[in-house]
Design goal:
Number of domains of chain A: 1
CATH superfamily of chain B: PPM-type phosphatase domain
CATH architecture of chain B: 4-Layer Sandwich
Number of strands of chain A: 14
Helix content of chain A: 10-25%
CATH class of chain B: Alpha Beta
Structural class of chain B: alpha+beta
Shape of chain A: globular
Number of strands of chain B: 11
Shape of chain B: globular
Oligomer: heterodimer
CATH class of chain A: Alpha Beta
Radius of gyration of chain A: 18 Å
Chain lengths: 281, 250
């Protein structure tokens, strides 16, 4: 059965973030409800930092962080390249334990968290920051997919039996070097024995709209780039849909890895590295 | 008197120090009651093996009686866990994991009575399972009857103060010659699946319960390799109530 390979330290999987850092990302984010919002670049930084934090926490155990995943971040604006800063500068893929120990800084933020008895309470939580917002230059999306393919082609060759890589592409959709559909198809064509690479598109739009997560049909939103990003997103296998449904997403049969103006922090929970209790949030 | 045997195996590729299931079995000499338990610490939480160990030991020693509404005992255990893990400076991710608490599924069994039989009572939360056998025939499985009933994400006991823990409870009669098998979820999946396919898992498990650790490890390794047994920590705890021998020491 595809997408069933055990994720372990001997057979890690891989996350690659592909981040649009172009000038248009300085525009205000439309958000789910409209009204005044921070910039799209700020929203992207929040999403990426949250996802990286959740990946590290998923792998954190008594003795430290277990390397269940390799993680990389490619940014694209004037050029395409590794976007890690600090001690990870210039590195394309790093083991998650290295990521855990190398944020740019650790902030303390106030968050609502479950109190374990059905309610919530506010607590200060440690919030590592690996990325600050960036917004300048063009949007070479085709080049970005090609570079992602180059990086991950090597990874799948060296991990032929692993769960295939997952690419999170976070963008406002305005490609400036042509239609990226073919480059995306080529990227999705990479495969291990466990299945094809999965491409998730997280669309951060200037258009205010309802949040859309994992639609099973073209969501038909006003943003002209949403259709293209939906079309190039991977179909979700049944195992992932089951996990996402337990997280509260509809994820109907035929659902795709496409998210519009929504915060996908819970995304990493769909990969199985062992028992995840129903009441762990 | 009954005999109690256990097997414990870490995931293939992990060391025994990384084993996060736990088991305990103890006879109360005053009443002749046996109390035994298996717990499975959740991979996605930290210090879950310690939490699982604390739960089964407290249960087997009669210090904690889940399902009776006596919440104070569980809160005492939670305070003990927090005292054991929060006495050192930690990196940000370990601090955050500790804040979320440790989680463990649990099944506990209390068997009382005399030479001719008696009553048993069990509690469970999550997908650690109990099988009551008469000879090699299944009398009752608890808390699940079919492999498909085992949840993708089980409920578990959280080490966080005040967290809710809703236990399933059941009870029944036992006779001399009966056995009880307690196990964590990977083996329960194999067992229920095999039984559904008319594969007679119980004679195998009753035999393995008395086998040495190497034989059990070889048996599990073959089934892991062939995809019959999920690669997870495996625990089997068996209590066999003998036919002829007296239930209690004279």
């Amino acid at each position: 059965m595809p997408y069933s390979a055990e994720i372990s330290r001997a057979n890690p999987s891989c996350f690659l973030f592909l981040i649009d850092q172009s000038g248009s990302m300085a525009d205000p984010w439309g958000g789910a409800q409209g009204g005044a919002h921070e910039s799209k670049a700020q929203e992207v930084a929040t999403i990426v930092n949250n996802l990286l934090r959740n990946i590290v926490l998923k792998c954190s155990k008594d003795e430290g962080v277990r390397n269940y995943f390799d993680v990389g971040v490619l940014g694209y604006c004037d050029q395409v390249g590794p976007a890690f800063g600090g001690p990870l500068t210039g590195r394309q893929l790093v083991a998650v334990a290295d990521l855990a120990d190398a944020p740019l800084r650790i902030e303390t933020r106030r968050r609502k968290i479950p109190d374990g008895a059905g309610g919530t309470l506010e607590q200060d939580v440690k919030f590592p920051v690996w990325f600050d917002p960036v917004a300048h230059g063009g949007t070479p999306m085709c080049q970005a997919f090609a570079e992602a393919r180059r990086v991950l082609d090597h990874w799948v060759q060296t991990h032929p039996f692993s769960h295939p890589p997952i690419v999170f592409h976070i963008t406002d959709g305005e490609s400036t070097d042509g239609d990226p559909s073919l480059a995306a198809e080529s990227l999705r064509g990479l495969a291990t024995t466990d299945g094809n690479l999965m491409l998730f598109n997280v669309h951060i739009s200037s258009h205010a709209s309802r949040e859309i997560s994992f639609p099973a049909a073209d969501p038909g939103v006003e943003d002209p780039y949403a259709h293209m990003l939906y079309e190039i997103s991977s179909d979700l296998p049944d195992t992932m849909r089951s996990h996402l449904q337990l997280e509260g997403y509809p994820a109907a049969p035929g659902a795709r890895g496409f998210i519009f103006n929504a915060e996908p922090a819970a995304l990493v929970s769909f990969l199985d590295i062992g028992t995840r209790p129903a009441n762990l949030r | 008197m009954p005999t109690c045997r256990a097997h414990a195996l870490p995931k293939a590729g992990s060391s025994i120090r990384e084993y996060e299931d736990a088991w305990a079995c103890q006879e109360d000499p005053a009443s002749g009651t046996w109390r035994l338990a298996v717990a499975d610490g959740a991979t996605e939480s930290s210090f879950a093996g310690l939490w699982a160990t604390m739960l089964v030991q407290a249960y087997a020693q009669g210090q904690w009686q889940p399902g009776t509404g006596n919440r104070a005992d569980l809160e005492d255990l939670r305070r003990l866990w927090q005292g054991a893990v929060s006495d050192r400076p930690l990196p940000w991710y370990a601090e955050e994991k500790l804040r979320a608490g440790a989680y463990a599924t649990f099944v506990g069994l209390e068997v009382g009575g005399a030479a001719g039989g008696g009553r048993w009572h069990a509690v469970a939360i999550g997908d650690s399972c109990l099988f009551h056998l008469r000879g090699a025939r299944l009398v009752r499985s608890f808390p699940f009857r079919a492999e498909g009933d085992l949840p993708l994400r089980p409920q578990a006991i959280c080490s966080g103060l005040g967290a809710e823990a809703l236990f399933a409870e059941t009870e029944g009669d036992w006779r001399p010659g009966d056995s009880f098998l307690l196990m964590s979820d990977a083996l329960a999946h194999w067992c229920l699946g095999k039984a559904e396919r008319r594969g007679r898992p119980f004679p195998t498990l009753l035999r393995l319960a008395d086998a040495g650790p190497r034989e059990f490890a070889r048996w599990a390794a073959v089934r892991r390799r062939t995809g019959q047994l999920r690669n997870d920590d495996v625990t089997l705890l068996a209590l066999k109530c003998r036919e002829a021998a007296p239930w209690r020491r004279s």
